[in-house]
Amino acid sequence: xxxxxxxxxxxxxxxxxxxxxxxxxxxxxxxxxNLRTQTQIxxxxxxxxxxxxxxxxxxxxxxxxxxxxxxxxEKNKNIVVHGDYDADGVCAAxxxxxxxxxxxxxxxxxxxxxxxxxxxxxxxxTVKNLKEKNTDLIITCDCGVSNxxxxxxxxxxxxxxxxxxxxxxxxxxxxADAIIHPKMPNEVYPDKTLCGGAVAFKLxxxxxxxxxxxxxxxxxxxxxxxxxxxxxxxxxxxxxGDMVPLLGESRTITRYGLTVLNKTKNLGLKKLMxxxxxxxxxxxxxxxxxxxxxxxxxxxxxxxxxxRMDHANVAFALLMAEDEHEAENLAWALNQNNVDRQxxxxxxxxxxxxxx
Length: 356
Fold this sequence. Notes:
mainly alpha; inorganic pyrophosphatase (n-terminal core); 3 domains; five-stranded parallel β-sheet; 6% strand
């Protein structure tokens, strides 16, 4: 079969002279990736959390979303976070629920769909069941923007709905109370390629920023800035797991999230790294620092395996675990799910080769 090679155009000589600090091969890569300005190059090579993270209130509906959530917390209403069954959705749900609890939410729970019986996103039966459980507010993460009929039903049943999502925008968008989505037609938010976990992270940034106006510290004595940054490990796992372009804000979140992951306080992640063979019993790294490759090939598959072989609730319970014994058991369960997934894949590939 003949091949057609498409060669990138030659880099103008003046581009090399404008960036003498860069090796020629790096200059060429920057140019061919359409990173042409000094600002773009600096952000790519040396992301700065203080400079390259956008104000969450740039999202058109962020103020509405924050107001609804704080009203529900103050009135002790029943909040359900509806996530997805992959690593992005599970991490997003964990980020939001962890924050809501820190802000004093008493009635908050999660709903993660089953891949086979519930399918992706909201469904009509789920909406009805949530109403029967006296749900007042549904917050979706990593899903929702394509669920127009389901959101319409939720509204008819008297529930409020906040959508946080990043998937393709349908012709008709849902009648939600607020939609936090970087690709909405009227959206001015500058970064359009955030994953679901990163969008969830932007929501908690806004919640923490608002809470800080009247509260010096969170209820447990932690600063708002510290809690925010400790959630970056989950946002990085979500970004790598969903394979979004690691450019712009996504790159900054992932860069700093990997730093946090290497010293994570999340008990479930610590146990998952241990059963994965990445750390020893004392939490010391056995294979050097955890990087994007480690996350993509060791951590994400184990989180994803829960939703593929069992139920994503196992992965969510691990990431929320506060008991060491429970966290270790859940980590081993996820590890076994991943082993079973690998064996099933091998068998299916073998059968396909045999039939071919």
